[in-house]
């Protein structure tokens, strides 16, 4: 078999990425996304986009994504390969100079369709062969005006908090007993709970939406119940964060926070609201379902 050539693209040949046939089952292309390089006004940078070529033909490709101001990629969210070229895909990931999480986008209920399941499992196997490990599967939600707009419960009050140290304290409390796989991974690292809280805060600041939107939630007796962060990521309005402190759990406050976050964004003019939660986080998944958010995708995360 002809030797592989693996390299990054350049602004002059970024269109090479689109010569590969898109997967009809999984990945960003399966949901109507198109690869467009920053050289053509798009969101993918050619030097963060790599291809594996055999006889000049693309047999595997990967695109790492980052925000407009990021100096390094945030995530790998486009990875596929031709039939019989799984090892070429794995080798591409081994050689590319990025150690970032892989977000594999699949349709809701992907395990129920044999063809889709095979496509997902092939990509997971290739990423695993390249050294990644499965981290978590997540539900992705999208509220639109065609969905019911949930009513506020009135059980909590919400106030902005300008002091990041106060926000950090609440995040530490939330993450001290968390079902979130990414937070648990950060806690298991060298920085422990402090690193997990600061990582969350950094994400809030990274989002291109006003700091003034963040809200702490309080019970009628004035105790902190949690935090909700309405946000915009580069793709649009989203539920940035929902967290209930451990001592306030058991009352369904996650739903209250989600409703407040949703209605706040709609009042700011949002025409849709994106959200996500780990599939193992049953309380939050139940809150999204109760609030009228349909599951539109399932994402498989490997790190």
TrEMBL record:
Class of the enzyme per the UniProt entry, highest EC level: transferase
EC annotation from Swiss-Prot or TrEMBL: 2.3.-.-
GO molecular function, a single term: acyltransferase activity
Keywords, in A-Z order: Acyltransferase, Transferase
Annotated ranges, domain N-acetyltransferase: 172-303
Protein name, entry field: GNAT family N-acetyltransferase
Source species: Streptomyces rubiginosohelvolus
